[in-house]
Design brief:
Elements: E1 2-7, H1 13-27, E2 31-36, E3 50-54, H2 68-74, E4 83-90, H3 100-111, E5 115-116, E6 121-124, H4 131-149
Parallel strand pairs: 1-2, 1-3, 3-4, 4-5, 4-6
Helix pairs in contact: 1-4
Length: 150
């Protein structure tokens, strides 16, 4: 089983979220690839069983600038065989714009035909001890979705 984890991070928080998910998937025997979003190609997601996207939200709910092409390319990619989840760090101070990119990537992946394996997960600022079990549940949800497809 193969998982592609794509992240964008300004502060390092989302890279940390992506690395936690990677460790959790690795522990379940999944082969993982971790890629920074500016280096990612949407088509590469078709090479795996699981896609995890970890974007940051910038300014007033904006997507990561380095991820705009990747975001747009998702709609030109058939992801019907892929189970996905989107998680990301943000600052709850931003209110309605808090982790908005997480929600937008979640919707874009669904429109590209991928199967949602986990509900979008928001992490307030840097992931802490309270977030570990939430991320474990997120990862387990992805694994359960894959098992149901088998």
């Amino acid at each position: 089983m193969q998982a592609n984890i794509v992240f964008a991070s300004l502060t390092g928080n989302n890279e940390e979220v992506a690395e936690i998910v990677q460790r959790q998937l690795d522990a379940q025997g999944v082969t993982t690839t971790l890629t920074e979003m500016s280096q990612a190609d949407a088509e590469d997601l078709t090479d795996g069983d699981i896609a995890v996207i970890v974007p940051y939200t910038y300014g007033e709910g904006d997507l990561p600038e380095e991820g705009l092409d990747f975001f747009e390319d998702l709609l030109d990619t058939d992801l019907s065989g892929v189970v996905f989840g989107v998680a990301g760090s943000g600052d709850s101070w931003y209110g309605d714009d808090y982790c908005k990119a997480v929600t937008e990537f979640d919707q874009q992946l669904a429109q590209a035909g991928a199967t949602r394996g986990a509900q979008p997960l928001f992490v307030d600022l840097r992931p802490d001890d309270d977030d570990e079990p939430r991320l474990a549940a997120f990862t387990q949800s992805l694994m359960t979705a894959i098992a149901k497809r088998a």
